[in-house]
Amino acid sequence: MLPADNRLRRREDFAIAVRRGRRAGRPSLVVHLHRQETSGFGAPARTPVTARPSEPDTLRQSVAEDPHAEVEQAPPPRAGFVVSKAVGPAVVRNVVKRRLRHLIRDRMALLPAGSLVVVRALPPAAQADHSDLARDLDAAFDRLLGRSGRPVAVRADGPAAKPGATA
């Protein structure tokens, strides 16, 4: 299961990822990746309280350097899945979706902060086993993230890409 912060839910977010993002197609799936701008990283989430001109400069400095001030953090990457009826009946679609969700969970750390990912399963995903889906997903991420032929580092309990695989 993906943590709530990493789930793509809104229709608009799916549309942004598919329309504005880059796409990498593989035999069993298509991955859309949209990297959002995170130029505000480290900026205050709210406008800092400024001192009045009559107040001393030390007060202004203490407000600006407050270690407890809320700081905006880069949003986590989020992923969503599209598994149409062309993949198969409901049971098959749910199995494919669970496998993809498990594979994405292991690879969320590889994605840039604030990115939106949509994984669209194609009909061959119904017959693909876990390792085939992992290989296709890794190859798509390699292409989208600009990696070539390097092994993918995932969690210790997750599958790793083969060291000579190319995108």
Automatic annotation (TrEMBL):
<comment type="subunit">
    <text>Consists of a catalytic RNA component (M1 or rnpB) and a protein subunit.</text>
</comment>
<dbReference type="GO" id="GO:0030677">
    <property type="term" value="C:ribonuclease P complex"/>
</dbReference>
<dbReference type="Pfam" id="PF00825">
    <property type="entry name" value="Ribonuclease_P"/>
</dbReference>
<dbReference type="InterPro" id="IPR020568">
    <property type="entry name" value="Ribosomal_Su5_D2-typ_SF"/>
</dbReference>
<keyword id="KW-0694">RNA-binding</keyword>
<keyword id="KW-0819">tRNA processing</keyword>
<keyword id="KW-0255">Endonuclease</keyword>
<comment type="function">
    <text>RNaseP catalyzes the removal of the 5'-leader sequence from pre-tRNA to produce the mature 5'-terminus. It can also cleave other RNA substrates such as 4.5S RNA. The protein component plays an auxiliary but essential role in vivo by binding to the 5'-leader sequence and broadening the substrate specificity of the ribozyme.</text>
</comment>
<dbReference type="GO" id="GO:0001682">
    <property type="term" value="P:tRNA 5'-leader removal"/>
</dbReference>
<protein>
    <recommendedName>
        <fullName>Ribonuclease P protein component</fullName>
        <ecNumber>3.1.26.5</ecNumber>
    </recommendedName>
</protein>
<dbReference type="GO" id="GO:0042781">
    <property type="term" value="F:3'-tRNA processing endoribonuclease activity"/>
</dbReference>
<comment type="similarity">
    <text>Belongs to the RnpA family.</text>
</comment>
<feature type="compositionally biased region" description="Basic and acidic residues">
    <location>
        <begin position="54"/>
        <end position="71"/>
    </location>
</feature>
<feature type="region of interest" description="Disordered">
    <location>
        <begin position="37"/>
        <end position="79"/>
    </location>
</feature>
<keyword id="KW-0540">Nuclease</keyword>
<dbReference type="InterPro" id="IPR000100">
    <property type="entry name" value="RNase_P"/>
</dbReference>
<dbReference type="InterPro" id="IPR014721">
    <property type="entry name" value="Ribsml_uS5_D2-typ_fold_subgr"/>
</dbReference>
<dbReference type="GO" id="GO:0004526">
    <property type="term" value="F:ribonuclease P activity"/>
</dbReference>
<dbReference type="GO" id="GO:0000049">
    <property type="term" value="F:tRNA binding"/>
</dbReference>
<keyword id="KW-0378">Hydrolase</keyword>
